[in-house]
């Protein structure tokens, strides 16, 4: 897919990017190269290839799911900027 300077100008305007006229032709060539590379990726046979989330198939270690009391409330509340009666105090955001 070839991209011309007019297309680059239109996309730049839509994206609200100010590009000088003398740079449009160079950007068009660069974007054409990127689009050619993307078209090449479309030619790769991916039939039977499972989607993956990582390059290495490793299961993450799991911890036991147990209910706790949250530890020491004084330590938890020590990081709060303001507390009252053992609770965090936050600014009101809904009227």
Structure commentary:
It is a single chain. The protein has 95 residues and is mainly alpha-helical. It contains three helices and two strands; from the N terminus they run αααββ. Strands 1-2 form a two-stranded antiparallel sheet. α1 (5-14) packs across α2. The radius of gyration is 28 Å and the shape is flat. The model has no long low-confidence stretch (mean pLDDT 89).
> Could you list the spans in which at least 5 consecutive residues all have pLDDT below 50?
none
Biggest beta-sheet profile = 2 strands, antiparallel
Radius of gyration: 28 Å
Share in β-strands: under 5%
Helix fraction, binned, reads 25-40%
Task: Describe the structure using short key phrases.
95 residues; mainly alpha; two-stranded antiparallel ribbon; 2 strands; 39% helix; flat
Short description:
By secondary structure, the chain is mostly helical. Helix content is 39%, strand content 4%.
């Amino acid at each position: 897919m070839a991209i011309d300077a007019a297309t680059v100008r239109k996309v730049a305007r839509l994206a609200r990017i100010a590009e000088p006229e003398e740079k449009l032709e160079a950007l068009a060539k660069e974007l054409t190269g990127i689009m050619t590379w993307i078209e090449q990726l479309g030619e790769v046979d991916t039939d039977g290839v499972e989607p993956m989330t990582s390059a290495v198939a490793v299961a993450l270690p799991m911890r036991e799911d147990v209910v706790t009391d949250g530890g020491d409330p004084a330590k938890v509340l020590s990081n709060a900027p303001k507390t009252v009666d053992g609770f965090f105090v936050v600014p009101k955001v809904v009227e």
